[in-house]
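Page 47, continued from p. 46.
Same chain as before, 422 aa.
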Amino acid sequence: MDELLYRQMPHSLEAEQAVLGSMLIDANCIKDVMEKLRPEDFYLRQNREIFETIYSMFLYSKPIDGVTVAGEMERNGTYDENTTRNYLVQLMEVTPTSANVNEYADIVRDKALLRAIATVASDITGMVQDGTGGASAVLDAAEQKIYAVRRGRSAQNMEQISVVLQGVLDHLAELSATGGKTLPGLSTGLSAVDDKINGLSKSDLILLAARPGMGKTSFALNVALNVAKASGKAVAVFSLEMSKEQLVTRVLSNEALVENGRLISGNLRESDWVKIAEAASTLSRTDIKIDDNPLLTVADMNAKCRRIENLGLVVIDYLQLMTSAGGKGYSGENRQQAVSDISRMLKIMAKELQVPVLLLSQLLDAFFVWKHRWNGLTVSVLIGCLPLLLAGDLGTQMRVLGFFFAAYYAGAYVLCAQLKKR
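Result:
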């Protein structure tokens, strides 16, 4: 019997009862508990059922006390004539005050995390012993499971619609309070773009596609800098083409309003140094992290991003230089499968991290042009040249298929057209 008790999963019966008792005697503390705990954090089934009932009543702003909770449990079928009412009374009697409810909730949450870690450790041990997959696959799965625990949620659990609904309603209330003028996502810093895509929303995979020399990297770096400055969040930039020194030089050029060519050559005026010093001071206060390793896979990027605190945006430059899960290059007959694998993994990464991922892509040279008269000028708009977007299931992974840059050949205008919105 002693060995059986020793093997029990971590839990604190006293802390669970104290949390429930506090909520029953003081409805004002319920909102604080709801921010910390979820029903699955309770180890004992009876405690979990009571908390689920209180949780549901809280979502719909119902009055909460011992009598109303008992009535609600009768309606949802979790009430036991022999034990429930007496147990609710016991919970209120053993909790004289709700003053320490936050400390009780912390204990319950800590025990729940320990149980989650034990479960993950058991799953990882099972994967190793069963021999399902190679070492890299098991390591990636293990890291994903641990990351899910660190974020305080299980990647496998299904959630009741009422729980999700409350978050949606709260978000709608925040947007409505400003008259619909607040973007649901992070601002790109470009109002015309924000109007089209409603900002960079969490879990979005967004494609920025253009032919070579159209300014994809500069555009993406401007967006990254705007997000870092406006939101104060960290921005991860993965450059598989340019070195980190080249990227920082471009950002410095944009911020200082000094021609990039003069920065590269060192042909600077005295006034340029003042601008550069001010720009460098501004950039040093942002949290932009750059990785220029050209051999990174999606799994590598995912692992690095998981370790970044307060991550707001991920920028990847660019798709054609990435390798698929199997490490095969993006070329030849495997191109379609590679695009499918990469886009699917990036979408999963965006959802796991709950951040937007801005993916740059090179368009091929095979294209055709639609010429149109606009404001008295002939504008050449590229409407072909997207075979890579049609390959695999890349299009199904995108909320926005991309910005399709098309230039007026005299160099006077650049159009930014939204192709498709999902």
